[in-house]
Amino acid sequence: MYPLVYHRSLTTEKWFSYPRHQQLLMIANELNRSQNALQKQDSNNAIHSWERAFELTDLTISDPKNPSLLKELLRFREMLGELFNQPDTRKNKILMDTLVTLNSTAYVMMH
Question: Which fold does the domain 12-110 belong to in CATH?
Fold first, then answer.
């Protein structure tokens, strides 16, 4: 794992101790922040939110308790990269909503 820039105090052990739904919701929270920033036309904060989402996504991908989600998480990361390069509020919302559908507990908590 590369050195974390935005979550310096977060260790892999601590991240791995969180349940899957909490990990996904924390990533979704960053997408929600980017959504708010995009609506305010604050591209700098949107970019920082996506960068934080990348960090948390990479931690989640490396979590050994998530092998059944690996394909979906890698695809999510790819779509996050596309969003990073071509910001779009509609796609950001869709990506956030899709992320929480990967876990029923996360979905229920979001809706």
Answer: Four Helix Bundle (Hemerythrin (Met), subunit A) (1.20.120)
